[in-house]
Amino acid sequence: MSYAAEKQVAIAAVRRACILTSSVFNNLVKNETLTKEDASPVTVGDFAAQAVVNTILGRAFPNDPIVGEEDAADLRGDAATALRTRIVELANATLTAKLEAGEKEEWGLGPSGQQTTEQLLNIIDKGKHEGKAERMWTLDPIDGTKGFLRGEQYAVCLSLIVKTEGRTRVQLGVIGCPNLPSDLSNPSSPRGGIFVAVRGEGAYELPLHDPFSAPGRRLSIPKLTTDNLNLLESVEKAHSKLSFNEVVAKELGITKPPTRMDSQAKYAALARGDGGVYLRMPTGTGYREKIWDHAPGSLLVEEAGGKVTDSRGEDLRFDLGRDLGENYGVIVAGEGVHSSVLDAVKRALAKEKQGQ
Ligand SMILES: Nc1ncnc2c1ncn2[C@@H]1O[C@H](COP(=O)(O)O)[C@@H](O)[C@H]1OP(=O)(O)O
Ligand SMILES: [Mg+2]
Ligand SMILES: [Mg+2]
Ligand SMILES: [Mg+2]
Q1: Which residues have CB under 6 Å of ligand 1?
Q2: Has 274 been annotated as catalytic?
Q3: Looking at the domain 4-219, which fold is it?
Protein backbone atom coordinates (compact mmCIF):
# COMPACT_ATOMS: atom_id res chain seq x y z
CA MET A 1 0.00 0.00 0.00
CA SER A 2 1.32 3.44 -0.82
CA TYR A 3 -0.24 5.46 2.03
CA ALA A 4 -0.09 8.55 -0.21
CA ALA A 5 -2.90 10.39 1.60
CA GLU A 6 -1.46 9.58 5.04
CA LYS A 7 1.99 10.72 3.91
CA GLN A 8 0.68 14.08 2.68
CA VAL A 9 -1.24 14.74 5.90
CA ALA A 10 1.68 13.66 8.09
CA ILE A 11 4.20 15.87 6.29
CA ALA A 12 1.86 18.88 6.52
CA ALA A 13 1.23 18.23 10.24
CA VAL A 14 4.91 17.86 11.06
CA ARG A 15 5.81 21.01 9.10
CA ARG A 16 3.22 23.09 11.00
CA ALA A 17 4.39 21.64 14.33
CA CYS A 18 8.03 22.48 13.48
CA ILE A 19 7.12 26.09 12.75
CA LEU A 20 5.35 26.23 16.11
CA THR A 21 8.22 24.71 18.09
CA SER A 22 10.81 26.98 16.44
CA SER A 23 8.74 30.04 17.32
CA VAL A 24 8.30 28.79 20.91
CA PHE A 25 12.04 28.37 21.33
CA ASN A 26 12.66 31.92 20.22
CA ASN A 27 10.11 33.27 22.72
CA LEU A 28 10.16 30.74 25.56
CA VAL A 29 9.93 32.31 28.98
CA LYS A 30 10.89 30.73 32.28
CA ASN A 31 7.48 29.64 33.56
CA GLU A 32 6.53 27.87 30.33
CA THR A 33 8.06 24.53 31.28
CA LEU A 34 6.64 21.91 33.64
CA THR A 35 8.33 18.93 35.24
CA LYS A 36 6.41 15.69 34.73
CA GLU A 37 6.00 12.87 37.25
CA ASP A 38 9.03 11.07 35.79
CA ALA A 39 11.07 14.28 36.32
CA SER A 40 11.34 14.96 32.57
CA PRO A 41 10.55 18.47 31.28
CA VAL A 42 7.58 19.40 29.08
CA THR A 43 7.07 22.85 27.56
CA VAL A 44 4.17 24.80 26.09
CA GLY A 45 5.72 23.76 22.74
CA ASP A 46 5.22 20.02 23.42
CA PHE A 47 1.54 20.51 24.36
CA ALA A 48 0.72 22.97 21.56
CA ALA A 49 2.49 20.85 18.91
CA GLN A 50 0.53 17.78 20.05
CA ALA A 51 -2.71 19.81 19.83
CA VAL A 52 -1.90 20.87 16.26
CA VAL A 53 -0.87 17.45 14.95
CA ASN A 54 -3.79 15.70 16.67
CA THR A 55 -6.24 18.26 15.25
CA ILE A 56 -5.01 17.60 11.71
CA LEU A 57 -4.96 13.79 12.12
CA GLY A 58 -8.34 13.87 13.88
CA ARG A 59 -9.89 15.71 10.92
CA ALA A 60 -8.16 13.74 8.16
CA PHE A 61 -8.49 10.27 9.74
CA PRO A 62 -11.18 10.54 12.44
CA ASN A 63 -11.26 6.80 13.15
CA ASP A 64 -7.54 6.38 13.75
CA PRO A 65 -6.31 6.18 17.36
CA ILE A 66 -3.30 8.33 18.30
CA VAL A 67 -0.63 7.32 20.78
CA GLY A 68 0.86 10.66 21.81
CA GLU A 69 3.40 11.35 24.51
CA GLU A 70 1.60 14.20 26.24
CA ASP A 71 -1.79 14.53 27.96
CA ALA A 72 -3.71 17.56 29.18
CA ALA A 73 -4.20 16.55 32.84
CA ASP A 74 -1.69 19.14 34.12
CA LEU A 75 -3.35 21.89 32.03
CA ARG A 76 -6.89 21.77 33.38
CA GLY A 77 -6.71 23.29 36.89
CA ASP A 78 -6.67 26.97 37.94
CA ALA A 79 -2.94 26.74 38.67
CA ALA A 80 -2.30 26.16 34.96
CA THR A 81 -4.26 29.14 33.61
CA ALA A 82 -1.24 31.02 32.22
CA LEU A 83 0.26 27.89 30.66
CA ARG A 84 -3.09 26.88 29.15
CA THR A 85 -3.69 30.33 27.69
CA ARG A 86 -0.29 30.33 26.02
CA ILE A 87 -0.81 26.81 24.58
CA VAL A 88 -4.21 27.80 23.16
CA GLU A 89 -2.70 30.96 21.65
CA LEU A 90 0.18 29.01 20.06
CA ALA A 91 -1.99 26.18 18.74
CA ASN A 92 -4.58 28.55 17.25
CA ALA A 93 -1.92 30.77 15.66
CA THR A 94 -0.45 27.67 14.00
CA LEU A 95 -3.77 26.14 12.89
CA THR A 96 -5.12 29.40 11.46
CA ALA A 97 -2.00 30.34 9.45
CA LYS A 98 -2.76 30.54 5.73
CA LEU A 99 -3.01 27.34 3.72
CA GLU A 100 0.21 26.29 2.02
CA ALA A 101 0.75 24.01 -0.97
CA GLY A 102 -0.33 20.46 -0.20
CA GLU A 103 -2.63 21.44 2.71
CA LYS A 104 -6.43 21.28 2.94
CA GLU A 105 -8.91 23.42 4.86
CA GLU A 106 -10.86 20.29 5.85
CA TRP A 107 -7.89 19.28 8.06
CA GLY A 108 -8.83 22.16 10.37
CA LEU A 109 -6.30 24.56 8.85
CA GLY A 110 -6.54 28.13 7.62
CA PRO A 111 -8.42 31.20 8.88
CA SER A 112 -11.47 29.14 9.98
CA GLY A 113 -9.36 26.70 12.05
CA GLN A 114 -9.74 28.50 15.41
CA GLN A 115 -10.48 26.06 18.30
CA THR A 116 -11.79 26.62 21.82
CA THR A 117 -9.69 25.84 24.88
CA GLU A 118 -11.81 22.79 25.66
CA GLN A 119 -11.51 21.48 22.09
CA LEU A 120 -7.73 21.83 22.21
CA LEU A 121 -7.38 20.13 25.61
CA ASN A 122 -9.61 17.29 24.41
CA ILE A 123 -7.63 16.85 21.21
CA ILE A 124 -4.36 16.72 23.20
CA ASP A 125 -6.01 13.94 25.23
CA LYS A 126 -6.85 12.02 22.06
CA GLY A 127 -3.21 10.92 22.35
CA LYS A 128 -3.94 8.81 25.46
CA HIS A 129 -4.65 5.64 23.47
CA GLU A 130 -3.23 2.46 25.01
CA GLY A 131 -1.21 1.65 21.89
CA LYS A 132 -2.78 -1.61 20.80
CA ALA A 133 -4.73 -1.33 17.56
CA GLU A 134 -4.85 -2.67 14.01
CA ARG A 135 -3.93 0.82 12.82
CA MET A 136 -2.68 3.73 14.94
CA TRP A 137 -0.51 6.83 14.82
CA THR A 138 2.32 7.57 17.23
CA LEU A 139 3.30 11.14 18.03
CA ASP A 140 6.18 12.64 19.94
CA PRO A 141 5.47 16.37 19.57
CA ILE A 142 8.96 17.30 20.77
CA ASP A 143 11.38 14.40 20.99
CA GLY A 144 14.46 15.42 22.92
CA THR A 145 12.85 18.16 25.00
CA LYS A 146 16.14 18.67 26.84
CA GLY A 147 17.91 19.30 23.53
CA PHE A 148 15.11 21.66 22.52
CA LEU A 149 15.59 23.66 25.74
CA ARG A 150 19.35 23.86 25.09
CA GLY A 151 18.75 25.13 21.53
CA GLU A 152 20.26 21.92 20.15
CA GLN A 153 18.71 18.93 18.40
CA TYR A 154 15.10 17.88 18.81
CA ALA A 155 12.54 16.35 16.47
CA VAL A 156 8.81 16.27 15.79
CA CYS A 157 8.10 12.57 15.26
CA LEU A 158 5.02 10.98 13.70
CA SER A 159 4.41 7.43 12.51
CA LEU A 160 1.63 5.20 11.28
CA ILE A 161 1.68 1.63 12.58
CA VAL A 162 -0.52 -0.98 10.87
CA LYS A 163 -1.14 -4.66 11.45
CA THR A 164 -1.00 -6.48 8.13
CA GLU A 165 -0.73 -10.21 7.53
CA GLY A 166 -0.44 -10.80 11.26
CA ARG A 167 2.51 -8.39 11.74
CA THR A 168 2.31 -4.99 13.44
CA ARG A 169 4.82 -2.79 11.65
CA VAL A 170 5.57 0.85 11.04
CA GLN A 171 4.36 1.74 7.54
CA LEU A 172 4.99 5.48 7.49
CA GLY A 173 7.44 7.65 9.42
CA VAL A 174 7.86 11.42 9.31
CA ILE A 175 10.47 13.25 11.39
CA GLY A 176 10.90 17.02 11.40
CA CYS A 177 14.32 18.24 12.53
CA PRO A 178 14.29 22.07 12.61
CA ASN A 179 17.83 22.39 13.95
CA LEU A 180 19.66 19.65 12.05
CA PRO A 181 22.47 21.11 9.88
CA SER A 182 22.39 19.89 6.27
CA ASP A 183 26.08 19.04 6.71
CA LEU A 184 26.77 17.66 10.18
CA SER A 185 30.47 18.52 9.92
CA ASN A 186 29.62 22.17 9.25
CA PRO A 187 27.43 23.65 12.03
CA SER A 188 26.85 26.81 9.99
CA SER A 189 25.32 24.91 7.05
CA PRO A 190 21.58 25.54 6.50
CA ARG A 191 19.39 23.88 9.13
CA GLY A 192 16.12 21.99 9.04
CA GLY A 193 14.69 19.03 7.20
CA ILE A 194 11.73 16.68 7.11
CA PHE A 195 12.64 13.01 6.85
CA VAL A 196 10.01 10.71 5.37
CA ALA A 197 9.77 6.98 4.78
CA VAL A 198 7.00 4.72 3.53
CA ARG A 199 7.64 0.98 3.83
CA GLY A 200 8.90 -0.37 0.53
CA GLU A 201 9.24 3.10 -1.02
CA GLY A 202 12.53 4.38 0.39
CA ALA A 203 13.57 7.21 2.70
CA TYR A 204 13.75 10.87 1.67
CA GLU A 205 14.86 14.22 3.07
CA LEU A 206 12.59 17.15 2.14
CA PRO A 207 13.09 20.89 2.69
CA LEU A 208 11.38 21.79 5.98
CA HIS A 209 9.62 24.91 4.77
CA ASP A 210 8.58 23.68 1.34
CA PRO A 211 8.24 19.91 1.61
CA PHE A 212 5.81 19.46 -1.30
CA SER A 213 7.91 21.36 -3.84
CA ALA A 214 10.03 18.43 -5.04
CA PRO A 215 10.41 14.69 -4.40
CA GLY A 216 13.36 15.37 -2.10
CA ARG A 217 16.70 13.66 -1.69
CA ARG A 218 16.68 9.86 -1.49
CA LEU A 219 18.63 8.60 1.50
CA SER A 220 20.93 5.65 1.44
CA ILE A 221 23.33 4.58 4.16
CA PRO A 222 26.80 4.29 2.62
CA LYS A 223 28.74 1.05 3.03
CA LEU A 224 30.84 1.74 6.11
CA THR A 225 33.25 -0.55 7.89
CA THR A 226 34.21 -0.35 11.54
CA ASP A 227 37.39 1.54 10.44
CA ASN A 228 35.51 4.58 9.24
CA LEU A 229 32.38 4.92 11.35
CA ASN A 230 31.62 6.39 14.74
CA LEU A 231 28.86 5.99 17.29
CA LEU A 232 25.83 8.22 17.54
CA GLU A 233 24.60 8.48 21.10
CA SER A 234 22.48 10.51 23.53
CA VAL A 235 23.70 13.72 25.12
CA GLU A 236 21.85 12.89 28.34
CA LYS A 237 23.70 10.36 30.51
CA ALA A 238 20.43 9.26 32.15
CA HIS A 239 18.93 8.13 28.81
CA SER A 240 21.41 5.44 27.80
CA LYS A 241 24.52 3.77 29.17
CA LEU A 242 27.34 5.75 27.57
CA SER A 243 30.06 3.84 29.46
CA PHE A 244 28.83 0.64 27.78
CA ASN A 245 29.11 2.34 24.38
CA GLU A 246 32.80 2.98 25.09
CA VAL A 247 33.37 -0.73 25.67
CA VAL A 248 31.52 -1.62 22.44
CA ALA A 249 33.49 0.97 20.47
CA LYS A 250 36.72 -0.61 21.74
CA GLU A 251 35.48 -4.11 20.85
CA LEU A 252 34.81 -2.85 17.33
CA GLY A 253 38.11 -1.01 17.02
CA ILE A 254 36.33 2.32 16.51
CA THR A 255 38.77 5.16 17.04
CA LYS A 256 36.68 8.20 16.11
CA PRO A 257 34.94 9.93 19.06
CA PRO A 258 31.14 9.51 19.34
CA THR A 259 28.71 12.11 17.99
CA ARG A 260 26.30 13.11 20.76
CA MET A 261 22.91 14.36 19.70
CA ASP A 262 19.47 14.53 21.31
CA SER A 263 16.32 12.94 19.92
CA GLN A 264 15.42 10.83 16.89
CA ALA A 265 17.56 13.22 14.85
CA LYS A 266 20.11 10.41 15.44
CA TYR A 267 18.05 8.07 13.24
CA ALA A 268 17.79 10.82 10.61
CA ALA A 269 21.54 11.49 10.70
CA LEU A 270 22.29 7.78 10.38
CA ALA A 271 19.86 7.37 7.47
CA ARG A 272 21.75 10.18 5.75
CA GLY A 273 25.11 8.51 6.24
CA ASP A 274 26.34 10.39 9.32
CA GLY A 275 27.75 8.29 12.13
CA GLY A 276 27.11 4.67 11.32
CA VAL A 277 25.87 3.13 14.56
CA TYR A 278 23.27 4.41 17.02
CA LEU A 279 23.54 2.48 20.25
CA ARG A 280 21.06 2.99 23.09
CA MET A 281 21.52 0.54 25.94
CA PRO A 282 19.47 0.70 29.15
CA THR A 283 20.90 2.40 32.22
CA GLY A 284 19.43 -0.19 34.59
CA THR A 285 16.73 2.02 36.07
CA GLY A 286 13.89 -0.04 34.59
CA TYR A 287 12.91 2.71 32.10
CA ARG A 288 10.97 1.29 29.18
CA GLU A 289 11.47 2.78 25.75
CA LYS A 290 8.35 4.32 24.20
CA ILE A 291 7.00 3.41 20.77
CA TRP A 292 6.90 7.08 19.66
CA ASP A 293 10.64 7.35 20.35
CA HIS A 294 11.55 4.66 17.81
CA ALA A 295 8.71 4.00 15.34
CA PRO A 296 9.39 6.65 12.68
CA GLY A 297 13.17 6.55 13.11
CA SER A 298 13.36 2.78 12.74
CA LEU A 299 11.45 2.80 9.43
CA LEU A 300 13.54 5.70 8.13
CA VAL A 301 16.75 3.76 8.76
CA GLU A 302 15.37 0.49 7.35
CA GLU A 303 14.24 2.25 4.18
CA ALA A 304 17.70 3.83 3.84
CA GLY A 305 19.24 0.33 3.91
CA GLY A 306 19.88 -0.09 7.62
CA LYS A 307 18.82 -2.47 10.34
CA VAL A 308 17.21 -1.88 13.75
CA THR A 309 17.06 -4.52 16.48
CA ASP A 310 17.33 -4.86 20.23
CA SER A 311 20.52 -6.19 21.85
CA ARG A 312 19.34 -9.78 21.29
CA GLY A 313 19.06 -9.13 17.55
CA GLU A 314 15.24 -9.19 17.71
CA ASP A 315 12.89 -6.76 15.95
CA LEU A 316 11.48 -3.90 18.06
CA ARG A 317 7.91 -4.64 19.19
CA PHE A 318 5.27 -2.10 18.23
CA ASP A 319 2.35 -4.34 19.23
CA LEU A 320 2.67 -4.35 23.01
CA GLY A 321 1.22 -0.98 23.94
CA ARG A 322 2.74 2.44 24.58
CA ASP A 323 6.19 1.02 25.24
CA LEU A 324 8.40 -1.53 23.52
CA GLY A 325 8.28 -4.03 26.37
CA GLU A 326 11.27 -5.00 28.50
CA ASN A 327 14.22 -2.72 27.68
CA TYR A 328 16.90 -4.76 25.90
CA GLY A 329 18.40 -1.66 24.28
CA VAL A 330 18.36 -0.60 20.66
CA ILE A 331 21.02 -1.17 18.00
CA VAL A 332 20.73 0.81 14.77
CA ALA A 333 23.28 0.44 11.97
CA GLY A 334 23.82 -0.02 8.25
CA GLU A 335 23.12 -3.57 7.00
CA GLY A 336 26.83 -4.21 6.51
CA VAL A 337 27.92 -3.44 10.05
CA HIS A 338 24.86 -4.34 12.13
CA SER A 339 25.91 -7.96 12.73
CA SER A 340 29.43 -6.90 13.88
CA VAL A 341 27.88 -4.38 16.27
CA LEU A 342 25.42 -6.96 17.59
CA ASP A 343 28.29 -9.42 18.23
CA ALA A 344 30.33 -6.71 19.96
CA VAL A 345 27.35 -5.79 22.15
CA LYS A 346 26.89 -9.45 23.11
CA ARG A 347 30.60 -9.75 23.99
CA ALA A 348 30.45 -6.54 26.03
CA LEU A 349 27.34 -7.77 27.87
CA ALA A 350 29.06 -11.08 28.66
CA LYS A 351 32.14 -9.23 29.99
CA GLU A 352 29.94 -6.97 32.08
CA LYS A 353 28.22 -10.04 33.58
CA GLN A 354 31.58 -11.69 34.35
CA GLY A 355 32.80 -8.54 36.05
CA GLN A 356 29.82 -8.43 38.40
N1 LIG B 1 15.01 7.96 31.82
C2 LIG B 1 14.99 7.90 30.49
N3 LIG B 1 15.67 6.93 29.85
C4 LIG B 1 15.67 6.87 28.50
N5 LIG B 1 15.01 7.77 27.71
C6 LIG B 1 14.33 8.76 28.30
C7 LIG B 1 14.28 8.88 29.71
N8 LIG B 1 13.54 9.97 30.02
C9 LIG B 1 13.10 10.50 28.84
N10 LIG B 1 13.58 9.78 27.81
C11 LIG B 1 13.33 9.98 26.40
O12 LIG B 1 14.52 9.74 25.70
C13 LIG B 1 14.48 10.44 24.48
C14 LIG B 1 15.66 11.32 24.31
O15 LIG B 1 16.72 10.53 24.13
P16 LIG B 1 18.07 11.18 23.78
O17 LIG B 1 18.71 11.48 25.08
O18 LIG B 1 18.73 10.11 22.98
O19 LIG B 1 17.75 12.39 23.00
C20 LIG B 1 13.31 11.26 24.51
O21 LIG B 1 12.30 10.57 23.85
C22 LIG B 1 13.01 11.39 25.95
O23 LIG B 1 11.74 11.81 26.02
P24 LIG B 1 11.26 13.26 25.45
O25 LIG B 1 10.52 13.00 24.17
O26 LIG B 1 10.40 13.70 26.54
O27 LIG B 1 12.46 14.15 25.24
MG1 LIG C 1 9.00 14.07 27.17
MG1 LIG D 1 8.68 14.29 23.69
MG1 LIG E 1 10.78 11.29 22.90
Answers
A1: 40, 69, 140, 143-145, 147, 234-236, 238-239, 262-263, 287, 293
A2: no
A3: Fructose-1,6-Bisphosphatase; Chain A, domain 1 (3.30.540)
